[in-house]
Amino acid sequence: MGLTGAQPGVTGDSTPPAAPRSDARVPPSPPHIEDRVVDPALSATTDRPTHCAPPMPAHTDVTQQRLLADPCLLRDIADAVGGPFHVLFPERVAVNIRAFQSAFTEAGVDGFVYFGKKANKAACVARACAESGAGIDVAGTGELVAALGQGVRGEDLMVTGPAKSDELLWLAARHGSLIAIDALDELDRLAALELPVRVLLRVLPEGSTSRFGLDPMELEQAIQAIGAPITLSGFSFHLSGYDAVARSEQAVALVGHCRRARANGHRADTISIGGGFGVDYLDASTWTEFQNTLSDKWFHTNPPGDYYPYHFPAPGAAMLDAVLSHNDLAGLLRDNGIRLAIEPGRALLDQAGSSVFRVQGVKTRTAQGNPYDILTVDGTSLSLSEQWFDSEYLPDPVLWPESTGHLTPTCVGATTCLESDLLSRRRIPLPRRARTGDLLVYPNTAGYQMDSNESPFHELPLPPKVVLRAGADRLRWSLDSTAR
Length: 484
Fold this sequence. Notes:
This protein is an alpha/beta fold. The protein folds into 2 domains: 31-89 and 353-483, Lyase, Ornithine Decarboxylase, Chain A, domain 1 (Beta Barrel), CATH 2.40.37.10; 91-279 and 315-349, Alanine racemase (TIM Barrel), CATH 3.20.20. 28% of the residues lie in helices and 20% in strands. The chain contains 13 helices and 17 strands. It has helices at 31-34, 62-69, 73-81, 90-107, 123-132, 141-149, 166-174, 184-193, 216-225, 244-263, 284-293, 316-325, 329-335; strands at residues 85-88, 111-116, 135-138, 157-159, 178-181, 197-202, 230-236, 270-272, 339-342, 353-367, 370-377, 398-400, 408-413, 422-430, 439-442, 465-470, 475-479. The radius of gyration is 23 Å and the shape is elongated.
């Protein structure tokens, strides 16, 4: 089984060696998470039952801790919505945006943050971007309209994606959005609009087999073809994985493209390096233990073939630091008067939400002669999207209400008739046996997990998004406008 192979939109390859930024790291796991290990010997592989996975408690921040510690709030929300739901913390989105903005400021670089909207469609996230001075990367008319509806100005939108529709190009041009050109015909269709428009040319990185971007011949054709009312603002690229060095070196190549374009009379003062800024879900020792002791015996069925790198030593804004510092990219950008745009998705949603499911049934099975429980919850794995990439979301869910008891290896199934519909295939060491009516809280799911694959399969309603904000005396919740 692989540990860091490629999955659509969710995996990485290598991690930068730079030390993490103190203001970008999530707080250490709180006491209530550590207390979930009832048996002190549980984390030792030799003492844990061989059919049970090791504990993998997630980093959590203060809002998540307050939510879990509140004796009533989770139950009140569950009773009100009547099914599974997602909780979002938009104030955390603002914190993450500020961390990236601070990295630009400290490096002396003119930079701009665009949120990769495909990572989460909640309206409260788009509003947090508008209020924090960030833009949004959109790839369709629906995303563009939704961003405008939450106060993001058209000029602060980056329009990406392949084979853009005429409607999307027209709407983006009308609102003054920056458009990343992925094919030559998009330039022809923009020219026919006879509207002033700013564009980036998306470059196909050397050696890439991606279906996206312009190859060297197409790139040269585009540079020669662009003229008023179209302005060539610069160039962009996207790389899979999470390699800071590769991003920095490709950015240097784009600076070279800007210089050559300027020689042809173009403005060319912006480059975009896309997203791929890692998120640190687990501490280093937890991730190392999982990697070193990984066993098929931990899984109810069909162990995954791939995993996101759930421990990331230099996540989010710390990775941006690494990109800017490699070969003094920051100095190169300053010397050439070039703005650096980034399009983080998952990294802006770190610690910004969780997913909550109600236990509907509990049954016991045996593996290697040892008992374990299979829970059925009131949702599906479509709401915890990692499973649909032949993977597993590894941060442990919290069983709520929290209490101690007899440690119980437990996997989690969905409320559908599909054998493969499992939220957690591995047997998680829950601190007690779950009961019907308990809640399972999967932490830190706002980035891609909670809605990138959701579907009303079996005519089940989509879990609503609940917005949680910290009041002076208590947490207060409301429904996100996408849920109304």
